[in-house]
Give the backbone structure.
Amino acid sequence: MTTLPAETLQALEGQGIELPSWAFGNSGTRFRVFGTPGTPRDPFEKIADAAQVNQYTALAPSVALHIPWDKVADYNALRAHAEDLGVALGTVNSNTFQDEDYKFGALTHHDDRIRSKAIDHHFECIDIMHATGSRDLKIWLAEGSNYPGQNDMRARQDRLQDSLQQIYARLGDDQRLVLEYKFFEPSFYHTDVPDWGTSYAQVAALGDKAMVCLDTGHHAPGTNIEFIVMQLLRLGKLGSFDFNSRFYADDDLIVGAADPFQLFRILFEVVRGGGLNNPDVAFMLDQCHNIEDKIPGQIRSVLNVQEMTARALLVDRAALDAAQASNDVLAANAVFMDAFYTDVRPALAEWRESRGLPADPMAAYAASGYQQKIAADRVGGTQAGWGA
Ligand code: PSV
Ligand code: MN
């Protein structure tokens, strides 16, 4: 069995991956949203399910909220509920994509009334962040156009910067803004924040408390995502990850499911660039579990990140440096691949047990009876869904 060096285990011990509250609600495609027995009916039940993931893995200490999906009357009560269950409330995600007013834009809109309404929504999110103790405000904009000539793309960039400046000015000293990019959808011709460069240009003009959010599902096929990770770390602007995986579009599948090697390459750049256990870089999941059970889906996800981080930490950096310095292309590649092909699962299982955790969190959760209990208890009410 591969043994993991003490410094690798130490690095892994500090790892925390934030879970999205919406992963615990029902989700689907435009064709069908399937319900699952036991799906949470409110944010309190979503937090309870998220706490299960942390209980079996010690990898998921916080939960991201989406506003208005996770609006509650008393955020102090939600915070206390989370803390009682051993987790914290994390990033607050704003939402300017489900209101009729935002059909043609929100923070970029030419109509001052609509743009002000979208800015005010972010002010409300910041107020919520003060109550929940959240540090990060994450902004993803569903804005753009479908047809050439439809919009003045440049004027929209200017209005976006103005809107972001107003939001930025409202942040508390310890709060941050992270701006997520996505190259298409729901707009298909142009998107106002399509790529890391646009996000970087927008946040760099704001100041130190504004960073880029990299969602691994938001790139064109074939994009070298680890290059972007390297560059943003180099520029000190990698604020957060939304981890998931994709085969075709923004599939929001389990991270590491579609392309484990890509996850390895990303995490290697994280490790090399000083992004691991760096408070400036938040690790989050942004996933939907359309057909699989949601809690084990999230457990599988954080384990995938942990396993691939362990492998990335195993890369023999001295050997890699030497091979690179001597232009030994194949030796350098072999060092890299050796780490990727190392099965760290038995060593991680043993390490978990040594820390009082189940060796196999998936099996431990399945045996716990929690899934059956929520299916029996959560009868009546309206199940939470992506978008509610
Ligand atoms: C947009 O596709 C996105 O990645 C943003 O992070 C949203 O907030 C999230 O999905 C909603 O699931
Ligand atoms: Mn995302």
Q: What stands out?
A: The first helix runs from residue 6 to 13. Residues 140, 180, 215, 242, 286 surround manganese (II) ion (ligand 2) (CB under 6 Å). The beta strands are 19-20, 62-66, 88-93, 136-140, 144-145, 176-180, 190-191, 210-215, 238-243, 282-285.
